[in-house]
Amino acid sequence: MRGISLLLIGLALTSCAAVPPGPERSAAKQRQLDELLAGKVPGPPQSCLPSYRSNDMVVIDEHTIAFRDGSNRTYVTNMRGGCSGLGGTNTLVTRTYGTAELCRGDIGQVVDLMNHFTVGSCVFGDFIPYTRPRR
Predict the structure, then answer these.
(1) Is the dihedral of CA 105, 60, 71, 45 positive or negative?
(2) Could you tell me which residues come within 8 angstroms of residue 82 by beta carbon, excluding any fewer than 6 positions away?
(3) Of 1, 16, 25, 101, which alpha carbon lies 20 to 30 A from 55's?
């Protein structure tokens, strides 16, 4: 009886520690991300992008956004909670205050370009740099 009690307690503790699975990504979106990161290796997470140009932003899906920095480096961030409604005629609008950097915790607004109104918002996570190794 005591063994069953310990087993049940152990199961309860491990179920609390389990990490929930991330959002599913379509095969086409996964291919797009794989192509952006081909031949690049991940580096340590950074809290801010060293430079930011909105035309270098690539929306993979509602949870993943990449920023191209030339052909040798791409930064990837996972949006906290996702950007519901991102895609189609909706785009992500970011604002920086006092600096040109985009940082973890900054808020992006999902804006409907056809009707010019905000349809949602989301928060940027850490930025993971993927860099092509030097030969």
Answers:
(1) positive
(2) 23, 62, 63, 122
(3) 25
Q: How many residues does the chain have?
A: 135
The DSSP symbol for 133 reads P
Residue by residue, DSSP assigns 11-49 as HHHHHHHPPPPPPP--HHHHHHHHHHHTT-EE---BSB-
Task: Name the least confident of 25-29, 87-91, 96-100.
Answer: 96-100
pLDDT in tens, 2-53: 444 433 344 343 333 333 344 678 899 999 999 999 999 999 999 998 777 7
Measuring CA to CA, which residue among 99, 25, 98 is closest to residue 66? Answer: 25
Could you tell me if 49 and 75 are in contact, meaning their C-beta atoms sit under 8 angstroms apart? yes
